[in-house]
Amino acid sequence: MGLLSEGSPLSWEETKKLADHVREHGINQFINLYHRLKDRQGDILKWGDEVEYIIVKFDDEQKVARVALKAKDLLEKLNEKELADPKNVKSLWRPEYGAYMIEGTPGKPFGGLMAHFNLVEANMRYRREEVTELLGSDECVMSITNFPRLGSPNFTYPLAQPHPEDPLSSARSLYFPDEAIFPGHPRFKTLTRNIRKRRGEKVSIKLKVFKDVKTKLPVEGAPPGEPDVVLLDAMGFGMGCCCLQLTFQACNITEARRLYDQLAPLCPIMLALTAASPIYRGYLTESDCRWNVISSSVDCRTEEERGLTPLKEQKFRIAKSRYDSIDSYLSPEAAKYNDVPLTYDEDVYKRLIEGGIDHLLAQHVAHLFIRDTVSLFSEKVHQNDEEDTDHFENIQSTNWQTMRFKPPPPNSSIGWRVEFRPCEAQISDFENAAIVCFVVLLTRVILSYQLNFLTPISKVDENMQTAQKRDACRKEKFWFRKSSKSTEQRAAQAANGTSNGNGITTNGINGTNGNATANGNGILKEENGHAKPPVMTNGTSKPMNGHGINGQASMNGSGADSDEHTDTDDEENELFQLLTINEIFNGKPNVFPGLVPLIRSYLQSMEVDTDTHCTIEQYLRFIQKRAAGELITTATWMREQVLNHPDYKQDSVVSDQINYDLLKRIQHIQEGKHIEPALLGQLNHSKTKTKDFIPPALQKQLAKNGCCEEK
Ligand code: ADP
Ligand code: MG
Ligand code: MG
């Protein structure tokens, strides 16, 4: 999201009346943008992270930590550099839902050079330092997923009290005051009000309390008949959580669809690995992740849509909240795994088909468009459907799913992108950088080895629920696709450097820069033989023709995994097995080589400078160890901190004192003052300093390649 433009939000009644208008024009806009951009080719790999942060204020005398409601003031200062010189900033700052939250991204996306993996952590550190400079000595910017006592008495600074009976309140929450919603832009309060009004009542977020020997039941505020439930009643409890997201640019729409599909089954897996939020409203719960909380926090479905009363006013029963995991794959080879019935309006679907959109994309968009707009600004109502995309974006950007398929914005140099959205924010820059780099590397491996992770959507949904269970990372099993022989062969071949001359480079797929040819080492060379720095390219996809995803990189002649062609129903069933997180990341003999070993084999074929190599190796070891349970998740660590705290009374309550000490410890960890072996082991951080970012020689080559530079 760019800097939010100011505007006047319409009332809910006005917005509601315009729901069909937004839908109709949104669909027109999508059809138009599709035809303008569907043939766009040759975009290079670009990628970038988004980290959300909470500002915490410590009262060292009273031993209380609170969220500091100062994001608006901070952002005014943080945005100064960008406003003065938007092209030359190292970071960009944006508002988020909470008045105590900010979102930071790198100033420019990273690109296709291996060396970029060595910049991520430094850039994250830079962002943290940039904010820290603007804070008081008793304040701290923290990349924690949830503030443990969010919604507990007096959790904000300055103190603000909820006003559930006030008709002017947006949230009407018993716990979460409107002052904790970002005040600098009307979008956030408007969404809060409209979601509540559309639903017909306040949102209702239910979490099972972690029952300890002295846990008092019913939990304070528990709904009738559900004594063990921690009830949360406001959008802020979910949208006020932080997460870690990544966006990648694909070379064209086909590759974007493919990456969207291949990454979707990895969402629950990465959610389990990054679990970081076991405490809500001051209670230890049975959940380790924010996902269901945030999903319920914006659940605008009416009782009819949720299936509680017969359909009268509304058109459909709707299975999920607008914030949830994806419901359908987008590429033809994945279509058979779309095993969950998709809800959509036949007329909308028909218009898309008649507008020249293929079935899979049409049903995806039609499904997004079952939602009504919940935030509309008066100056945006009337648009030019040939050029504008605001109505499309209005619905697209309020479908908050595990993956987002992002068309290029109007009049920009940006290509087709996909966003990976499940991960929870980790305490340290090291951890966040490790996760980001891991996922980006995984996309390269998926494209290079044509990996196939496709799993029926119903099983991915099941995995999403499993992922959030207490200590799922060590204790649970997840549906995962068995790898095919051809995958393993490809990986082994690449590792041995025995790739053939079929247009495959061992570093992936032929580059989009026409003068690059592959040599046996997988390094792209210019025709005259001068080696370029190792570049991770995007594919050069042909239109989908059933002959593999990218016309070039087909090792078995058909492009798709060979098991695709011989599947019988029985084999299909055997394809999906229940694996532990350890097995998925580190491998299980005869079933799956492991995500990390696959990345390692890919890296063997890349030329990487020593520094970057060390950094990546640290990240991979961290991921391996966490997956193996040698290092624990942030969620498990937080639980242990609470359970072992002298003030803990075995009653599931995270008191002010415990909260204060927990956050102080987190502060020391993120500042590197305290090494927590259970979380980080002996791993070293990326050595790249913020200021020496990229060596000058590399910078020149970068500029030549057009990497890391917005056109
Ligand atoms: P969102 O719509 O999710 O808020 P943002 O605009 O905040 O997305 O950007 C998300 C990330 O995408 C940022 O890290 C940014 O650096 C990165 N990014 C920007 N341009 C591109 C691009 N052309 N391709 C891929 N990623 C990009
Ligand atoms: Mg963003
Ligand atoms: Mg995002």
Q: Give the CATH architecture.
A: 2-Layer Sandwich
Structural class: alpha+beta
Q: Which assembly state applies to the chains in this document? A: single chain
CATH topology: Creatine Kinase, Chain A, domain 2
Bin the helical content: 25-40%
State the shape: globular
Number of domains: 1
Cα end-to-end separation: 19 Å
Radius of gyration: 25 Å
Question: DSSP helix count?
Answer: 26
What does the largest sheet look like? 9 strands, mixed
As residue ranges, the low-confidence spans are 498-533, 540-567, 690-711
User: Using DSSP, what is the number of strands?
Assistant: 21
Q: So what's the CATH class?
A: Alpha Beta
**Small-molecule binders:** adenosine-5'-diphosphate, magnesium ion
Strand content: 5-15%
Describe this structure in words.
The protein is α+β, with helices and mostly antiparallel strands and 711 residues long. The chain has a single domain (16-496, 593-699), classed as Creatine Kinase, Chain A, domain 2 (2-Layer Sandwich), CATH 3.30.590.50. 36% of the residues lie in helices and 12% in strands. Strands 1, 2, 3, 4, 5, 6, 9, 14 and 15 form a nine-stranded mixed beta sheet that branches. Strands 7-8 form a two-stranded antiparallel ribbon. Strands 10-11 form a two-stranded antiparallel sheet. Strand 17 (504-505) and strand 18 form a beta hairpin. The chain is globular, with a radius of gyration of 25 Å. Residues 498-533, 540-567 and 690-711 have low confidence and may be disordered. The structure holds adenosine-5'-diphosphate (ADP) and magnesium ion (MG) (2 copies). One magnesium ion binds at residues 50, 245, 419.
